[in-house]
Specification:
Bound molecules: 2'-deoxycytidine-5'-monophosphate
Number of strands: 8
Helix content: 40-55%
Shape: globular
Radius of gyration: 17 Å
Distance between the termini: 6 Å
CATH architecture: 3-Layer(aba) Sandwich
Length: about 230
């Protein structure tokens, strides 16, 4: 198989960005974590005091906002740099405030339409690994390889809690767990492009996998892609 578009979906903290990022690196493909686009719109709405419930205003913002996702210039654990109007918002989009508001924003069909269009433009050049919730089902239904990454919600909360603690966040494990459960519910039940595996996706459960195990999985995937 010689895949040039790879779609990876799954719930938050399932390991999909770890797998996607390393897969893209080994294949020398472009890597796009599409959650970043939804997070950037949410951050910008909060920053401009646009009420998250104001669908029309949030949708208008998503249509005009210029979000840049670039290769990282700083070594602080980031996989990419996210900017709006040259302001570095890479870590700001990971704040608890954005975590709480991003799923409601991603429910709006107009927001999804604007961001989906951007994703397709980026994927049109090929050689891309795109990670999200609806990449294999809606954004790139003809992707050459589709993966759906899952893990138990407790394990995902544990991982996300450690990550947030390392960055100085005071959120507790229980708060992180509650946020993930709420986001899973909103992401899976929305009518526009809900989180679900494409019928032709390969399912990978990472609940008991260490980072090293995930990297071994990536090596096996690289072999199937270049075979
Ligand atoms: O992967 P993440 O946690 O950074 O994603 C943030 C939110 O964005 C998530 O709650 C759902 C939404 N999202 C989406 O609806 N579709 C995508 N392709 C990517 C993310």
């Amino acid at each position: 198989m010689n895949s040039s578009t790879i779609a990876i979906d799954g719930p938050a903290a399932s390991g999909k960005s770890t797998i996607g990022y390393h897969l893209a690196k080994e294949l020398a493909y472009l890597y796009l974590d599409t959650g970043v686009l939804y997070r950037a719109v949410t951050w910008a709405a909060l920053n401009r005091h646009i009420p998250i419930e104001d669908e029309e205003a949030v949708t208008a913002l998503a249509s005009k906002l210029k979000i840049e996702v670039k290769s990282p210039q700083i070594e602080d654990g980031r996989q990419y740099t996210v900017q709006i109007a040259e302001q570095d918002i890479t870590w700001a989009i990971r704040s608890p405030e954005v975590n709480d508001a991003v799923s409601p924003v991603s429910v709006y069909p107009g927001v999804r339409e604007a961001l989906t269009q951007r994703m397709r433009e980026i994927a049109a050049k090929g050689q891309v690994v795109m990670v999200g919730r609806d990449i294999g089902t809606v954004v790139l239904p003809d992707a050459d390889l589709k993966l759906y990454i899952v893990a138990s919600v407790e394990e995902r909360a544990h991982r996300r809690h450690l990550e947030m603690k390392a960055r100085g966040s005071a959120s507790t494990y229980d708060e992180v767990l509650a946020n993930l459960q709420q986001r899973d519910r909103i992401d899976s039940n929305r009518s526009a492009a809900p989180l679900k595996a494409a019928e032709d996706a390969v399912i990978i459960d990472t609940t008991t996998l260490t980072i090293d195990n995930m990297l071994q999985t990536v090596d096996q995937l690289v072999e199937t892609v270049v075979a």
